[in-house]
Amino acid sequence: SLAAIIASLKGFNLERMLYNPSKFNRLSSETEYRTINGTTMKNLEILQNQTDMKTKGSLLWVLDHTKTSFGRRRLKKWVTQPLIKSSEINARLDAVSEILLSESSVFGQIRNLLCKLPDIERGLCSVFHKKCSTQEFFLILSTLSRLDLEIQALVPVIHSQVKTPLLQNVLLEIPELLSPVKHYLKILN
């Protein structure tokens, strides 16, 4: 209960943290994802088949055409936590359809770029948890800087050839998200 948490925090003089209402996030009754219990996951063979408990034959196996480990993890999350809102489902469906059916070369270029990257997600996790060496940090920054340059070179093509708003937003947001990388690279150099 909250009283037990406050009592525990008092031992560290941290109980004042809970007195500031701005520190609390409002819990919403509406969630973004459908919760799928273990029995349902098993019966629908979402992650593994029921015959030999292997991935082959499961829904994930059928859908998994990913080229990177971070893409594979993202797909697994999407399969195990499906969206609820029809507008978000349709936006994702439109984005996937455009990637699969578009004749634009931009998606092939992005695919080739992503295939050459190391596991950025794991690298960023190790940075966040302060579990990486300076050399690893530099490698991650260099990779992100290279990604930034490559995506920036594609911005005009993205504007003209990418049609779905979801894909446009995601791709055009990358340079902005990666802008701090240059600062950290300068510090390390």
From TrEMBL:
<dbReference type="InterPro" id="IPR045076">
    <property type="entry name" value="MutS"/>
</dbReference>
<keyword id="KW-0227">DNA damage</keyword>
<feature type="domain" description="DNA mismatch repair protein MutS core">
    <location>
        <begin position="39"/>
        <end position="174"/>
    </location>
</feature>
<dbReference type="GO" id="GO:0005524">
    <property type="term" value="F:ATP binding"/>
</dbReference>
<keyword id="KW-0234">DNA repair</keyword>
<dbReference type="GO" id="GO:0140664">
    <property type="term" value="F:ATP-dependent DNA damage sensor activity"/>
</dbReference>
<dbReference type="GO" id="GO:0006312">
    <property type="term" value="P:mitotic recombination"/>
</dbReference>
<dbReference type="Pfam" id="PF05192">
    <property type="entry name" value="MutS_III"/>
</dbReference>
<dbReference type="GO" id="GO:0006298">
    <property type="term" value="P:mismatch repair"/>
</dbReference>
<protein>
    <submittedName>
        <fullName>MutS homolog 3</fullName>
    </submittedName>
</protein>
<dbReference type="GO" id="GO:0030983">
    <property type="term" value="F:mismatched DNA binding"/>
</dbReference>
<dbReference type="GO" id="GO:0005634">
    <property type="term" value="C:nucleus"/>
</dbReference>
<dbReference type="GO" id="GO:0016447">
    <property type="term" value="P:somatic recombination of immunoglobulin gene segments"/>
</dbReference>
<dbReference type="InterPro" id="IPR036187">
    <property type="entry name" value="DNA_mismatch_repair_MutS_sf"/>
</dbReference>
<dbReference type="InterPro" id="IPR007696">
    <property type="entry name" value="DNA_mismatch_repair_MutS_core"/>
</dbReference>
